Amino acid sequence: MFFEYKIALYIGVILGVFFIFISLYSYIRYKKLISYLYLKNISYGSLYVGETSYFFKVLKILFFSISFVFLVLAIARPKFGEKDVIVRKIGYDCIIALDISRSMLAQDIYPSRLEMGVNLAKELVNNLKDIRFGFIVFSTDALVVSPITDDKDIILLYLSYIDRDITISGGTNFFNLVKRSINLFKDNYKTKLLVIISDGEDHSGHEKEIIEMLKRHKIKVISIAVGTSQPTPIIMKNTDGSVYYLKDNKGNIVYTRLNDKFLKELANSTDGLFINVKNNMFNVNKIYDYIYSLEKNKYNSRESFSQKEDQYQIFLLISVIFFILYLSIYFYPKYKKIE
Fold it and tell me: Which DSSP string do the residues of 299-338 spell out, in sequence order?
């Protein structure tokens, strides 16, 4: 709850203390007057002395106090409330697809292809504006981690869970990735972006079909290739923390190298963008310039936010009700006559 005029609360406290002091003072004077009249046996015509019961006295004080407190609160203009509103926005829809196949554990770029990919994804999410993100991880299959959302924090949270200890299956399959991505995009959007962070190895055999699907649904691909062309062993980790090189069925060490041919083809065929991360260098501005040169989408976004609205009417009504109750008791006491 927020009070627009907090000074009214301070003044109310001061007035409350003042009223308490006056009430106590009046009560003491009243008691002294009654005692004096009885002791001196003074009669000035007919004197009526209030004989209201203790219960009604307490009610009068209670009703007046409640009325006063809520009046002060109403004057302070309390504001609170939260509601969902539909906001019309313009921007881009972007799915970040991160390759988590075993070859991404290679350390030909520091600290590894996978960790470099995670860092790149975080940089894009943190710095790109007017963009809704979705998140997919893929290897032989593709898993939708998050649908397209305005909430960047949830995407960053999921990215923070990706590390070399994640369960990583064998190879890379772009076909399943593209199918999952198509289901997340809305067909009426003009600009649909798929950012693929991968070392480019594909074993699906559906290259032409993949490109046709992307073109048919008007999805532009930003391919970010991580790795080098230098053959590099894949370092695995045991449960006890020890590491070993991945080997094939014959006991030979498995080497991986960057295969960016298909990543380039994906980008070129969809009028997208291809970037190769070499020697840990990454020109993120190139991606910014490319995305912001595209036409923005218009979409509705449901957002919850605190909309501070005046709520003094409720407090004022309560104050009036209790003040009427106070007056009803104040003007109808019982009396006794003193001669």
Answer: EEEEEEEEEEEE-HHHHHHHHHHHHHHHHHHHTS--EEEE
